[in-house]
Amino acid sequence: MSKMTEKDKLIIAVKQMADLPDKNKVSIKGKMYAEVHTRVQAFREAFGVDGKIISKVHVADKDRVMTETSVYVYKDGSWREIGNDFAEEFRASGMVNKTSAVENCLTSSIGRALSACGLSGGNYASFEEVDHAINEKVDVTAKEKPKKKDPVPKPKTAKDLKESMEEKGLAKKDEEEFIEEAKEIFGLEDQNYAEKFTRISEKALTDMDVAVNLKEVEAIWKQAIDDLKEIKGKVSPTAWQVWLGNMSLKREEMLKKETK
């Protein structure tokens, strides 16, 4: 019986990986992936000491890592390269890379280099590589800036304003009585001024409740002051100061949240 050649060994190893049962793989989103250690094992079983896997770290700075892996077999007195590939990882992406970016990157490039030799087991990327990519995406998503909550619909007319305040127990049933009371409380001379002051001041306080940072709170404050500057002189100093006091309290609450 003739001695098995390196070509024969590689063909057997490739077939072994191709025939690898799904129970020895890992499923991710409906696709089956062979783990890197399974690929390495198939390579070692085929070539033993006549095969070697060499990895190089090309970049390993504070931001990223890049590695290269080459697969060799010994034939006719020399080492011959039969597979090669690269991998790249960023230290800021995912929990694994915060402490083990080099190790993670080497695992990926080894798995890809063995895939280049035909030892993929179905899909070129390894389980570790795909799993990391998916988990990294989840991790980044979790750290995205929280979306601003949808504010409660704001009243646009005197009737809407009345109904809104009734729900909060702040207005009487009769619309005319409500307007007259608002005029008296806020010291306004005209119904339009009463409606404008109540609408804008209530909207500002409501928007502050759903603001996500101090910058947004201060922008809401500035906008409300600009919108009311034309009628400031028609509002009693007491009403104006009460409103500003409520705005200040909400600003202080947000400031405490950001300085914790």
Rg (CA only): 34 Å
Tell me the series of helices and strands, N- to C-terminal: HEEHEEEHHHHHHH
- Count of helical segments? 9
What is the straight-line distance between the termini? 77 Å
Counted up, domains total 2
Number of beta-strand segments: 5
Q: What is the correct CATH architecture of the largest domain?
A: 2-Layer Sandwich
What CATH first level of the largest domain would be assigned?
Answer: Alpha Beta
- Name the shape in a single word: rod-shaped
Summarize the main sheet. 3 strands, antiparallel
Mean pLDDT: 76
Helix content: 40-55%
Low-confidence regions: 137-143
Instruction: Give the percentage of residues in beta strands.
Output: 15-25%
- Placed side by side, the strands forming the largest sheet appear as 3-4-5
CATH topology of the largest domain: Enolase-like, domain 1
The secondary structure category is alpha+beta
Q: Could you give the topology of this structure?
A:
Blueprint: H1 6-18, E1 26-28, E2 31-33, H2 36-47, E3 51-60, E4 64-75, E5 78-90, H3 95-116, H4 127-142, H5 158-167, H6 175-186, H7 191-210, H8 214-228, H9 237-258
Keywords:
260 residues, alpha+beta, Enolase-like, domain 1, 2 domains, three-stranded antiparallel beta sheet, two-stranded antiparallel sheet, 9 helices, 5 strands, 55% helix, rod-shaped
Structural notes for this entry:
With 260 residues, this protein is α+β, with helices and mostly antiparallel strands. It folds into 2 domains: 6-142, Enolase-like, domain 1; 158-258, no CATH class. The protein has helices at 6-18, 36-47, 95-116, 127-142, 158-167, 175-186, 191-210, 214-228, 237-258; strands spanning 26-28, 31-33, 51-60, 64-75, 78-90. Strand 3 and strand 4 form a beta hairpin. Helix 6 packs across helix 7. The N and C termini lie far apart (77 Å).
